[in-house]
Structures are given as C-alpha cells and as structure tokens.
Specification:
The structure is a single chain. This protein is of the alpha+beta class and about 280 residues long. Helix content is about 25%, strand content about 25%. The chain has a five-stranded antiparallel β-sheet with strand order 4-5-10-6-7. Strands 11-12-13-14 form a four-stranded antiparallel β-sheet, with helices on both faces. α2 packs antiparallel against α5 (about 120-125). The radius of gyration is 19 Å and the shape is globular. It starts with 7 loop residues before the first strand and ends with a helix. The relative contact order is 0.12. The structure holds flavin-adenine dinucleotide. Flavin-adenine dinucleotide binds near residues 32, 48, 98 and 164. Flavin-adenine dinucleotide binds near residues 26, 28 and 109.
C-alpha cells in the first residue's frame, strides 16, 4: 500500500547507517510488512538492502547469515553433508504464511525484527543457538543470544537506530540431530505452535524450543532425556502470561499442543524414530 506519510527514502545509505538515524525513520528490508499496513509514525525509510551484505557465508565455524538474506535464498542454500540440522532451513522457510512476494522479498533479519510469535526465522535461529550481531547508532556493536532478542509479541531488545546486522549459527548446532512439530488451523495457515528439538551427536541431551504458542521463544535444555513427567513439569512451569492468544489459538489450546508435541518428540528422540 502507499505510505503517504513518507517524505524521503534513503536509497544508498552509508556503510554504518546508524549515524543517519532520526525520529520517524525505519530500516527498510524486504518491505513486506512495512508496505502491508499503515505506518503513520514514519517519515523516512532507509533501504538496508542497498548495503550489499553477503547473504550466506558457510565456514568451519558454522553459517553466517546476513540480515538482508531473503527467505528464498535461505531455502535454496545447499548445506554441507555433515550439517543434518540444516534440514530445518527449508522447514522454517515453508512455515511462512507466505505469498509469492513475501517468499521472494522478505528477509531473515526483517522476520526476526518483526518479532511476531509466528516468526519462523526466530524459531530456526533460537533452536540452532544462533548469536545475533547488532549495530548501534554510534557505530559500536554487540552480540546477543537469539533466545534473548524477542521479548514479547512484536517487541524486541533493539533501541532507536539499532540494526540487526547478521546471524551466526554455530557448527555444533548444525551437526545436531533434529526434529520438529508444527500445528496450523489451516493447511497453509500461520503457526499455532512450532516446536524444534535438537540433540548432540552421541548423547541423550535435549534442547527443546517452543515458539508461536508463546509471545517470545522458550528454550528448555536438558542434559539427559527427561522422563514424561519431568518434561511435562517444565512445560507447565512456563508462566501463564507467556502463552499467546490470537485467532489461531487460545493460550490453553497452545499449552495443550506444546505438551502433546513435546512428549511425541521425547519418544521419537528416545527411541530413534517417529512414534
Ligand atoms: C501475506 C503476508 C504473510 C506474512 N506471513 C508472515 C508469517 O507467517 N510470519 C511472520 O512472522 N510474518 C509474516 N508476515 C510479516 C512480514 O512480511 C514478515 O515478518 C517478513 O519476514 C518481514 O521481513 P521484511 O524483510 O519484509 O521486513 P520489512 O517489512 O522490511 O521490515 C519489518 C520490520 O523490521 C524492521 N527491520 C527489518 N530489517 C531490520 C534489521 N536488519 N535491523 C533492524 N530492524 C529491521 C523494519 O524497520 C520494520 O519495522 C507476513 C506478511 C504478509 C504481507
């Protein structure tokens, strides 16, 4: 849609664009959300796709994803054969309630910074223990555990002028075994709950990430595979006000689904196959 409060677009920002920042600005990535609804508080867009950041940089340390990498590019990435958890890239790209335009233009960083409960790039990067690099307006940078970035529905820890620059997924996480469960009310609908579990090779540990059902990601870590009661207790201990409510599900429904799928995952990873 036309954004008729916008009076200026910075098409070629400086290399560290934070210095440009002023009230009424927004970073423009794929624009799939920015142009989908009114933005009365905005006066200027700063196009960060013009900065030419590399999209995908595999190395011995893992995978660096530039924040402006598109969902299409991530989905097309061919990972090394010893990264079994990279199968989650396609799974999470397909979890978008996505039109052709969203699929081709939306960026990984834009999805994370939207910070919606059903943001599949949040699910992916939290489950794979990513670190986010954030540039501040003054040119300094900080690194944040992906699990600490989103703090609520459409809320994250970015301050004015801060920009998500890149996402680093460690190789140890990419080498893990993984499984997932996702529930949607309709076949191509938005996620009601989306769970991913990973397990280190040759161990019985469990890292269970619960998203979409909660207003921010919840990651539960176990040194060894819990029994059913222990797993249930940890899910029951998730604070009531963290369960999300929208037309895709009530908090009670989402808590029920998370418990149900977590137990399926526990059995699958214990027995070495889907129940
Ligand atoms: C039909 C449709 C379906 C959608 N389905 C989903 C869905 O299933 N799940 C979901 O989560 N969202 C969905 N969205 C919302 C949105 O399109 C996606 O979240 C998308 O990934 C946003 O990415 P973008 O690059 O287009 O971001 P933009 O629209 O460009 O930006 C989104 C917000 O993030 C900020 N931003 C972008 N990049 C950065 C950065 N690097 N650093 C700091 N701030 C930044 C922008 O300033 C803006 O506030 C949907 C939208 C549409 C129109």
């Amino acid at each position: 849609m036309d954004l008729n409060t916008i009076t200026d677009i910075v098409r070629r920002p400086s290399e560290r664009p934070g210095v440009l920042w002023r009230d009424g600005d927004a970073w423009l990535a794929g624009g799939t959300w920015l142009f989908s609804t009114e933005q009365p508080q905005l006066r200027r867009l700063i196009d960060i796709t013009a900065l030419g950041w590399d999209s995908l940089m595999p190395s011995a340390a893992g995978l660096e994803i530039g924040a402006t990498c598109t969902i299409r590019e991530l989905n097309a990435f061919a990972p090394p054969g010893d990264w079994p958890a990279a199968t989650l890239f396609g799974t999470c790209c397909e979890a978008f309630l996505s039109s052709f335009k969203v699929w081709n233009a939306a960026t990984v960083g834009g999805n994370i910074c939207m910070s919606l409960p059903a943001g599949p790039m949040i699910t992916l990067t939290v489950a794979l223990e990513a670190a986010y690099t954030v540039w501040a307006a003054d040119g300094s940078e900080r690194t944040i555990d992906a699990a600490d970035f989103v703090i609520g529905d459409h809320r994250n820890i970015l301050g004015p002028g801060e920009i998500l620059r890149r996402i680093d997924i460690p190789v140890a996480a990419l080498r893990k075994r993984c499984t997932h469960r996702r529930f949607t009310l309709t076949r191509l609908g938005r996620s009601t709950v989306f769970l991913i579990a990973t397990q280190s090779p040759g161990t019985a540990d469990l890292l269970l990430t619960i998203t979409a059902g909660t207003t921010r990601p919840v990651r539960l870590a176990f040194d060894s595979m819990p029994d059913a009661d222990t797993l249930r207790e940890r899910i029951d201990a998730i604070p009531e006000d963290l369960w999300f409510s929208d037309p895709n599900g009530t908090p009670d429904h989402r808590r029920h689904l998370a418990g149900y799928f977590a137990e399926e995952i526990r059995v699958e990873l214990t027995e070495g196959g889907r129940p």
